[in-house]
C-alpha cells in the first residue's frame, strides 16, 4: 500500500489499537496533523501545553494498562514534553511519544525549532529513535509499541523529520516483532523459585514488600491469593497502593519516609523480605545499612538491573511478578500459616501502639479527613490522581484504596503538575468512573491551563485543592530541619481559584467547612464540567510519621511539637 | 569499598547513536571510563566496544546490568581470562638516536613506522601496563606527541 510517512504514522496508531492521542501541533509535525484531520480511527485531544499531553497519555496508560500516546512538534514542543517522558520513565509507564523534527537535510544546522531531541530523551526513555528513512518508519513504530509495553514497561520516543512524513512509500506493517538484542525474561528461574519457596517455609517473620511492578504486571489478584493462602503480612510502597485493598487484615499499610509505624517496624524486624516488583527506593528504605537488617531477601523483578542495585539479595528472581508468584504458590503447596502467628501478633501490637491517625477537629478542615471523606463519598469506583507534596502523602496514607490502578501519582520523579493532566487521561480511559485529582495550591498552578482542555472536550474531572497557602512539603522540612526559615514557600498571594475555574468554562467551589466540603463534592460529582474545589485546610498540618531523610526506618517522628 | 579494574566487551548493533547510549550511561550514572574503543565486527551488523573501567564489585555489576539493558546490546562480556593489548604512537625529533629508539620499540612489539624531514613516528603494541613502561622509557628521547589507542581484549 502506497502512502505518505504521515499516513503511515496514523495507520500504525490505528493498528496498535490507539483510541486517544494527546498532543499539540507545530511546524515539523504538521504533515501528521494533516492526516489526523482526515482520519477517524482515533480521537485527538489538544492539551494546552506539551507537558500536559505526555502526562495525560501517562494517566491514560496507568488507568487502562494500554500504551499511552502523545504527539508534539520539534524544538520547544519536544523540550516541553521531556518532563513527561522522565516522569513516565521513573514510574515505568508504557508510552509512545512521537515528535516532529526538522527535515533531514537541516539536522545539525541549528535550524528553526531544531533541538537534538534523541540526545535529550536518551537518558529519560526506555528507548528512542531518530527515523532516518521512510523505509524504516513502519518497523520503528511497531518496535516502539512493543518495547514500551513489554518487559519492564517505559516510554519510547520516536523523532520523525518533516520530509519523511511528506515522502510517499510502501507501507508494510510487521505483524510480529522480534528484536535479537531485546529479550525480556518473564518466567523466572525455577531453581531460584524453589529456593525462595523453601525460605518462605522456613521463615518465622516473613514480610511481603510489594511495589508498582505488581500493578504493571496486573498481578494484584494473584498477590491477594498468595497473602490469603500464606497469611504473610504485607507492606505496600507508594506505587502499590490499592493492590491489597484497604481493610485487608494482613495489610499493614505503606512503608517508607511517611509510612506508618507498624509497616516500618515490620521491615526493621522481619527475617525474610519477599519483594515483588519493588525497587528499594531511598524514600522506602531510609538508611540502607539499617534496612531489613535481620532479613534474607527474595527479590522478584523483571528488570535484572534492579536486583542487587541497592541491597544485597539472597534469592534473585528475574521475571514477571504474576508468573513468578503463580509458580511460588504452586511450589509452596499447603503451608502451615500458624508458623507466622506470633509475628502477626507482634505487628498487631505495633499498630495498636501507634496507629496511623491525626488530631481530629471540628473547627478546621484536616487534610486527612478530606481523604477519608472522599473515600466515603465516591468509594471504590473512583480513580484518584495526585500531584506532589503533602497532599500526595495524605492521600496515600488515608484514602481507602481498594484496587490496583485506582491510584495514579508521580512516585519516582515527583513531578508537580502531573495530577490534573493525568486525571484527564484517566477519565478518557474510563469515562464511566469519577476521576478526582487531589492537588495542592502549589502543584495545581503548574498545569492549570488544562482547565481549557477539560472544558473544550467536556472531561469532567474534579480537582480537590488541599490549600494551606504554602508549598507544604517544603514548608514542613523548613519547620523540622531549617529552623522555620520559610524561604519562598509562603503562598499567601493566591489566585481566585473559583473564578479561575469559571473563567475557563469550569466550576469553582470555595470550601472552608466540612458541610461545605460535602455539598461541593456531591455537586461536583454530578456536574459534567471540570471543577476546582478550593479547600482551606489547617495551615500548619504536617505529614506524619516521618523518617528524616537518611535516617533508619525505625526512627520515626510520630509527633511534632509545632503541631 | 575496594575498586577493581575491569575490562568489559559490549557487542552492540552497529547503528547510529549506539556509542552515545553506552558513553551516556557511564556519564549519567557516574561510572568511570579509563578507555573505550569501538569498531565494527567484520561480516556482521554488530560492533565491538571494549571498555576499561574501575569501580567496586557492586558498581561493576551494575555497569554490566545497565549495559545489558540497553536495547541495542547483544552481549556483555566481563573479561576474566583474556588477552589485552593496546597500541601507542610516539613522535620523536629526528635528532634523537634513531637506533636506540628502534631498539626500544623492538622490545615492545613495535618499530619506527614513518620518517619525515624533522621527526620520526614510532609505534608499539603490548599489554596496557607495558605500554605505560614504554612511554616512560621513551621520555629520554624527548617525544613531542604521544597517542594511546585504548585497550582491546579477547577472551582466551
Q: How would you summarize this macromolecular structure in one to three sentences?
A:
Chain A is an alpha/beta fold. Chain B has 156 residues and is of the alpha+beta class. The interface between A and B is medium-sized, with 18 and 19 residues.
- Alpha-carbon distance between the termini of chain A? 69 Å
What profile does the largest beta sheet of chain B have?
Answer: 4 strands, antiparallel
Look at the structure and name the CATH superfamily of the largest domain in chain B.
ACT domain
By CATH, the architecture of the largest domain in chain A is named 3-Layer(aba) Sandwich
The biggest beta sheet of chain A reads: 6 strands, parallel
What this model shows, in words?
The complex is a heterodimer of chains A (563) and B (156). Chain A is α/β, with parallel strands linked by helices. Chain A folds into three domains: 2-170, 3-Layer(aba) Sandwich (Rossmann fold), CATH 3.40.50.970; 190-353, Rossmann fold (3-Layer(aba) Sandwich); 367-536, Rossmann fold (3-Layer(aba) Sandwich). Helix content of chain A is 37%, strand content 17%. In chain A, the strands form four sheets. Chain A has a six-stranded parallel beta sheet with strand order 3-2-4-5-7-6, sandwiched between helices. In chain A, strands 11-10-9-12-13-14 form a six-stranded parallel beta sheet, with helices on both faces. Chain A has a six-stranded parallel beta sheet with strand order 16-15-17-18-20-19, sandwiched between helices. In chain A, strand 4, helix 4 and strand 5 (95-101) form a beta-alpha-beta unit. In chain A, helix 11 (261-269) packs antiparallel against helix 14, helix 15 (367-378) packs across helix 16 (390-398) and helix 15 (367-378) runs parallel beside helix 21. Chain B has 156 residues and is of the alpha+beta class. The longest helix of chain B has 13 residues, at 57-69. The radius of gyration of chain B is 18 Å and the shape is elongated. Chains A and B meet through loops of A and helix 1 and helix 2 of B.
